[in-house]
Design a protein that fits this description.
This protein is α/β, with parallel strands linked by helices and 672 residues long. The chain contains 17 helices and 27 strands. The longest helix is centred in the middle third of the chain and has 29 residues.
Length: 672
């Protein structure tokens, strides 16, 4: 494990909230957790009101007793700072800690994410609490990491945020002249003559609703600003902890593809990545894998901590299905397969009251180990003990990268473009799903990452090309790399202004095409194109492409409408490399076929050849190469093992040959 040097196995456990329970049941909990193989608890996530009942008084008596008990029971601790929910007294004494929502309505005390990130009082008091906790518990050697707040998110539109936004803009642009130019304020007479004229973009000003802004660049900058504001809150608490414990490992639990925060920027400030995984039973297995790869990717490919998942069911969706038998184990091993060095749950004991009283837990309301979920948790605990430190710190070998940025996501989100059905994450997912179903390892990259380890880079719907990004892509492709992008790419710069000279802007020479127009198809409408003699649908948007230097890959272009015959898919030779462009949205089968062709040409091969519905991926460390084979289907699957390997869960050798994998079963093999 790269971030917790003392650990000799995958940490196993999760959120424990003993403050919700009488102390006489704590010893029973310790026995049940130990019998399930639990070795780690996250403590103090939501205890601010208890440990600080007033501004000038702390009360750590119960937390002290909890900490002594878990230490005596040889449990590791992830210590939380408890600052995710401010106490009622704080809202009463300092109303500036309360948020103002998108409608301009000031919130009262309640709910969970309700603290203004630019409240000086919230920042002061949260940092003070984090520092006090670190000072009090710095001698506890079983504290492996520090967990700041919980699932940061949400936006505020109060006067404090408006003032802070203007300061943020001053720092970014320097002068009003530069801001007016960047924001193109000559449009609709929006020119600002004084900084104080700038207002927050909410329902009272620029926005019709939370998806449609009449001045997208202002909303784009405000989203950047809010992400930075919450990041400053995290850094204040982190720094307060490190002042007391300089070598403390500090994190906060992220949420995969969460639109509100730029996790690539956040990752630079975190010692390690941790995140909460809550897929639904109806999610495709490749879609469940995708955020794991993102969380690994934001930290340059380093392993991460799976901080939360439910052992049984969630409680906050409209419909909350149980995880079917074997699925918790399957999804836990899937997380490990994609880079997790911990397997953690929310929660250890099911709450008796409150919003999450029916959320799954290791210990159910029965208070015993006589439940299906507990038995499954205990079984996984034994397997993790068997695996030991085998996979800790292992990296994912890959020659394929997928470019993803929050700036691009936000820009597409706010744009007034050819179709409201054009969604950035959907377009990224099309390519990711195809590659994952082909069992090709890949990394999700930021444009700031090093491109040299990769042979193929996909950048679906790269609507925003920021300064320098085209040069990096140009160099990568000239030097022999393969670059792949799709419709609505190269359109705007980092200020959301269109790059003039013809679409796809700064990518035009690399791709060897000119996109003259883009047709936003009405719901239910579709065009078509053929590839390798097979017809595929063309949906959502159809780019009208002129192949300047590129050659068409479709057989005869679009099948209908006035642009019938114009190319839909192109390939360009650029320097020593290749550049592909897909001018429309199509079917899963098309993307699998195209990605297979592209990867084969680049010498990229699957991890293993396995049947449909079975996932194969790998990790590598100094102990060897670890192959994870996961049967996501509901049927037995026969897999072929090409050479001798060690079965890491059964502690036995597997010889080359055919093996049957039961539904929802997992096989972990090691080769040296």
């Amino acid at each position: 494990m790269e971030y917790m040097k003392k650990i000799n196995k995958i940490l196993y456990g999760g959120d424990y909230n003993p403050e919700q329970w009488p102390e006489e049941i704590w010893p029973d909990d310790m026995k049940l957790l130990k019998n399930a193989g639990i070795d780690t608890v996250t403590l103090n996530v939501f205890s601010w009101a208890e440990i600080q009942p007033s501004e000038d008084r702390y009360d750590f008596s119960r937390l002290d007793r909890i900490m002594e008990m878990v230490r005596k029971n040889h449990l590791h601790v992830i210590m939380a700072t408890s600052t995710a929910v401010h106490p009622a007294w704080m809202a009463e004494k300092y109303p500036d800690v309360l948020r103002t929502d998108f409608r301009g309505i000031g919130r009262r005390y309640g709910q969970r994410h309700n603290s203004c990130p630019n409240s000086t009082n919230y920042r002061r008091l949260s940092a003070a609490l984090a520092g006090t906790l670190a000072r009090r518990y710095r001698t506890f050697e079983n504290i492996e990491a520090w967990h700041v707040s919980n699932e940061y998110g949400g936006e505020c539109f109060c006067d404090s945020c408006a003032a802070a936004f203007r300061l943020w803009l001053r720092e970014k642009y320097g002068t009003l002249k530069a801001l007016n130019e960047a924001w193109y304020t000559a449009f609709w007479s929006h020119t600002f003559c004084d900084w104080d004229e700038i207002t927050v973009p909410d329902l009272r000003s620029e926005c019709d609703d939370e998806r449609h802004s009449r001045y997208p660049v202002i909303s784009l900058d405000y989203r950047r600003f809010q992400s930075d504001s919450l990041l400053e809150c995290f850094k204040l608490e982190r720094d307060a902890i490190k002042k007391e414990i300089p070598d403390a490992q500090v994190t906060t639990n992220l949420m995969g593809f969460f639109k509100g925060l730029d996790y690539q920027k956040w990752a630079r400030e975190m010692d390690f990545i941790s995140w909460d995984n809550y897929p639904t039973n109806s999610d495709a297995w490749a879609d469940i894998a995708m955020p794991h790869d993102l969380m690994r990717g934001v930290k340059g490919g380093r392993s991460f901590a799976l901080m939360e998942q439910t052992p049984g069911t969630a409680a906050w969706r409209p419909y909350n299905e149980l995880k079917r038998p074997g699925v918790m184990r399957l999804w836990s091993w899937q997380a490990v397969a994609h880079g997790a060095d911990t397997v953690m749950f929310f929660q250890m004991r099911k709450s008796r009251g409150g919003y999450e009283q029916f959320h799954g837990a290791v210990i159910d309301h029965t208070g015993t180990g006589n439940t299906r979920v507990y038995r499954e948790v205990a079984k996984l605990g034994k397997e993790l003990e068997t695996l030991g430190d085998g996979t800790l710190g292992a990296r994912t070998p890959s020659g394929v990268g997928i470019l993803f940025t929050w700036d691009n996501w936000w820009a597409v989100d706010w744009m007034s473009g050819p179709s409201q059905d054009f969604e950035y994450l959907t377009e990224v997912r099309r390519f990711y799903r195809a590659l994952r179903e082909l069992n090709i390892n890949m990394d999700i990259l930021s444009p700031e990452d090093d491109f040299s380890p990769y042979r193929v880079i996909f950048a679906p719907a790269m609507f925003m090309v920021r300064t320098g990004e085209d040069e990096k892509i140009r160099s990568f492709t000239k030097n022999g790399g393969t670059f792949v992008t799709s419709f609505m790419s190269g359109i705007v710069d980092e200020n959301d202004q269109v790059t003039l000279g013809g679409y796809p802007g700064k990518l035009r020479d690399i791709l060897g095409i000119w996109v003259e127009e883009s047709d936003g198809l009405l719901p239910g409408m579709r065009n078509s194109f053929s590839y390798h003699g097979r017809e595929y649908p063309a949906e959502i948007i159809c780019d009208l492409i002129h192949a300047e230097h590129a050659r068409r890959l479709d057989d005869s272009g679009y099948g209908s409408d006035f642009y019938q015959g114009m190319p839909a898919v192109t390939k360009n030779s650029f320097g020593n490399g290749k550049a592909y462009y897909v001018g429309t949205a199509s079917s899963d089968e098309f993307y699998r076929t195209l990605c297979r062709d592209i990867c084969s040409e680049a010498g990229i091969t699957p991890v293993l050849d396995v049947p449909e519905g079975v996932e194969a991926c790998s990790r590598v460390n100094d102990k060897g190469t670890w192959y994870f084979i996961l049967n996501h289907s509901s049927e037995e699957q026969t897999i072929e093992i090409p050479r001798a390997a060690w079965d890491a869960l059964k502690n036995e050798e597997k010889k080359p040959g055919s093996y049957v994998l039961e539904p929802k079963d997992v096989l972990i093999l090691k080769t040296v």
